[in-house]
Amino acid sequence: MWYMKRDPMPVFDLCALKRFEEEERHIHRVFDKSVLILMLSGVLRFEENGASVDLTAGEYYIQRPGLLQTGNRPSESPRYLFLHFTAAYSQEPADGLPIRGHCDIGAVQAAAEEFERRYRLHDSGFFSLNALMFQLFADLESGMTPQNGRLQIARDIQRFIAAEYASPLSLAKIAQRYGYSEDYTIRVFKNAFGITPYQYLIRYRLQQAERLLVSTDKPVETVSREVGYNDFSTFYRNFRKHYGRSPSELRGR
């Protein structure tokens, strides 16, 4: 894990709210600035030096400068605040803020809109904008996510899916595990993460499949079974839709 260092202090450059059109992709670039992304809705997909990154509502992510960022896969109509700044990085946890984490969508929405409004309308000077940025980083560091009941339920569901993804898992089984209706389970999870539990399950299975395909020589059919797919054609179709290439093509074979 990488961390944004507190010293030297980050310096603000610009910010804006961004919304992708349907099937729009992240641009291909090597950027010389750091970029904070605060996800408000949808799913943003890109790659950094070939590693896949998928961001959903309620997540923040810092793109470090000098990395090759590509958009080989379409995103799902993401809306987010992006903030350009300069900073230094370390792999020592004590040095600063993790480059990825979770935050409360409501709190982020308000902060993002105020930040963008002040910048767009030139309502604040250089020092005021830097002060807003520092406050935003401080909020992320201290944990903007309130430990309310619904969010805790959503995180419990998320952990359950991550632990049981290789088993025959269904929405009914997830809902039964926590004693809620299927509609309530979907609503709580989607409010927290911007996608349904089933969409998260599919994404998680495919991420695990990508890891196995890259790090092992296991046959593709074996990989599909190990990540929870009993039907290979469904695995192949989902994988190609998610990554824009087949499992064999990802391996370069």
- How many DSSP-defined strands? 11
**Assembly type of the shown chains?**
single chain
Question: Can you tell me the number of structural domains?
Answer: 2
Please, what is the average pLDDT?
86
Distance between the termini: 30 Å
- Radius of gyration (CA) equals 19 Å
| CATH fold description of the largest domain | Jelly Rolls
Residue share in helices? Answer: 40-55%
Query: Which structural class fits the helix and strand makeup?
Result: alpha+beta
**β-strand amount:** 15-25%
Number of helices: 9
CATH class of the largest domain: Mainly Beta
Secondary-structure element order, N to C: EEEEEEEEEEEHHHHHHHHH
The parts where pLDDT drops under 50 for at least 5 residues are none
Q: Give a short account of the largest sheet.
A: 8 strands, antiparallel
CATH architecture of the largest domain: Sandwich
CATH superfamily placement of the largest domain: Regulatory protein AraC
Overall shape: it is: globular
